[in-house]
Amino acid sequence: MRSSLLFAVASVFVASATAHDGHPHDPPATAPSGCLATPTDAVCSTFVVPNATITDAIKEICAINSFLPGCSLNAACTADSKLSTTYCAPMTILASLCIPTEDAVLTGTVCSKSYSIFCAANSLIPACKGQPAFPGLPSGKTVTGTVYSICQEMPMMTDCKICPTPEASGYSNCDEVKAWKGLCLDMPDMKQCPSYNTMCSNTKFAPFCDLNSNKYTHLDGNERK
Q1: What is the distance between the alpha carbons of residues 90 and 208, in angstroms, rounded to a whole number?
Q2: Residue 213 CA to its chain's centroid (Å)
Q3: Residues 83 and 143 in one domain
Q4: What pLDDT was estimated at residue 150?
Q5: How much is the pLDDT for 203?
Q6: What distance, in Å, lies between the first and last C-alpha atoms of the chain?
Q7: Which candidate, 68, 146, 52, 56, places its Cα nearest to that of 104?
Q8: Which domain covers residue 183, as residue numbers?
Q9: Which of 21, 68, 117, 199 could be a cystine partner for 140, CB 3.0 to 4.6 Å?
Q10: Residues 199 and 170 in one domain
Q11: DSSP letter assigned to residue 118
Q12: Are residues 126 and 140 part of one domain?
């Protein structure tokens, strides 16, 4: 009986020592949630950013900046769950909002405490590279300028009715992507439309592009057949 008691006490002592001597039972140096602040730690190579962290940032930006292209992307993906997850992944939408530096005056406050931290250039979080921004989607400032330029030259085009003259901020409070799409589909050879044509020659995304059109051009300038 005495020997059994001594064995039990010794076992407890060994277990306690093992739990505090740096063996694998110790928690990692950076807890998984810490990857949101320190994404360069090795443990972050398998970290999945909580969906709510991403969608909350998107909602905060788009609540007052719904005219931004990334917000148009979010609206399209929300409206149709069958759209490609390649383009509708929440991280792709957030990247499309946070990466364009021209829009930083509108997105910077949110992005600087979210995407710009956990998806910094040296981040090890897989989704940061695996779910990049929507390919070829410009900044809101660029789309606004393109629409304004076209409508200054050809104000009678139907889709010029979608967006008013840009405000002092440099943006129009309207569905800028819808106007951009409509104008460049009507007259794809306009000098303002190469970026739209290039985006749609490489992207199968119906809300932004006419998938039946053969007017988009490849990067080499040739029409898609």
Answers
A1: 17
A2: 26
A3: no
A4: 97
A5: 86
A6: 88
A7: 68
A8: 135-225
A9: 68
A10: yes
A11: H
A12: no
